[in-house]
Amino acid sequence: MAELVTNDPSLEGPLGIVRDAALVVEDDRVAWVGRAADAPAADRTFDLVGRCVVPGFVDSHSHLVFAGDRSAEFAARMTGEPYDGGGIAVSVEATRAASDDELRGLLTHRVAEMRSQGSTTIEIKSGYGLNVDDEARALRLARELTTETTFLGAHVVPPEARGDRSAYVDLVVGDMLTACAPHARWIDVFCEPNSPYAFTEDESRRVLRAGLDAGLEARVHGNQLGPGPGVRLAVELGAASVDHCTYLSDDDIDALAGSETVATLLPGVEFSTRSPYPDARRLLDADVKVALASDCNPGTCYSSSIPLAIALAVREMGMTPAEALQAATLGSARSLRRDDVGHLAPGARADLTVLDAPSYLHIPYRVGVPIARALDL
Ligand code: NIG
Ligand code: FE
């Protein structure tokens, strides 16, 4: 191959690039990386002459378990309607009405769509069931396709519970958590004082603490619609990641900089909601760990494309192509507390994404052109 991006810091530059490279896979792991001229013999070879290979994209934030769509809501936003989370109820109604087989079919199709664009590790959240049975069902189905499943019963207060928010939070931390925890690795909450449907700081803290007590690990939707407590709460509770980070104060940046919590940026959301893009440059300059993910969902971003997220990060958020690619691989792997993906050093999972191009620079450069795909070994 023309160029191999390993993210191995002992190799060239921050991306650990090897030119005229080869890579040997044994079982599902990388066994050897180096110059093609020095490669050991192998049983089977893939001819990738002239191509670039990068670590499979790690899409650490998606909401793939839903039925129906909200294209009319998108069209209204493009003419100036703001997003406030109210449309989530539309997806909840359609998702509850769908059969297991319908949902499984939709989910399988969306995961295949992601792989065909280069994503090899995919996190999937619940959050369109919002009752005990439908949340547990979403996670059971997601678990058939990934180990990175996230319980998001605290996505919004569903319409039937709006008269009594605290009873809904009781349900989330009680019977819903009990039913969902066996199928989930993570707990998440939409902590957003700027939406009447999402959760306050205190409610969010309660949900996350209950999840942690049940053995789940925490991640947070925070600071999406305006300034808020999400980032600081995520850091306080040692969450692996706080996602969106569209509106950040100096204190938020300081809190992130002194922590292990990753700031996951989702520029497809800013694109599809006509919002300002997060200040990635400020985060990177403060040494905050940054990830990029799609947030594929029917409301704020119905795009499963990590190459698009990379292109937006470069064009709109001041990230270099190298920073953006690293954020969508190593950064997002870190946000999932995974050290076996996101890089291609010997021992890592052999999750390879092939570009129909000679260099990783073509990911943002050839925006909108489907040059990336996961390699089926
Ligand atoms: O990540 N912010 C909350 N949740 C999703 C949107 C869900 C929806 O609108 O359906 C997000 O943007
Ligand atoms: Fe989300």
TrEMBL record:
Keywords: Cytoplasm, Histidine metabolism, Hydrolase, Iron, Metal-binding, Zinc. Coiled coil: none annotated. Zn(2+) binds at H61, H63, H221, D295. Binds 1 zinc or iron ion per subunit. GO terms for molecular function: imidazolonepropionase activity; iron ion binding; zinc ion binding. Pathway: Amino-acid degradation; L-histidine degradation into L-glutamate; N-formimidoyl-L-glutamate from L-histidine: step 3/3. It holds the Pfam family Amidohydro_1. It catalyses: 4-imidazolone-5-propanoate + H2O = N-formimidoyl-L-glutamate. Fe(3+) binds at H61, H63, H221, D295. 4-imidazolone-5-propanoate binds at R70, Y128, H155, Q224, T300. Its EC number is 3.5.2.7. Catalyzes the hydrolytic cleavage of the carbon-nitrogen bond in imidazolone-5-propanoate to yield N-formimidoyl-L-glutamate. It is the third step in the universal histidine degradation pathway. This is Imidazolonepropionase. HAMAP family: HutI (MF_00372). Belongs to the metallo-dependent hydrolases superfamily. HutI family. Its cofactor is Zn(2+); Fe(3+). N-formimidoyl-L-glutamate binds at Y128, N297, G299. One of its GO terms (cellular component) is cytoplasm. One of its GO terms (biological process) is L-histidine catabolic process to glutamate and formamide. Signal peptide: none annotated.
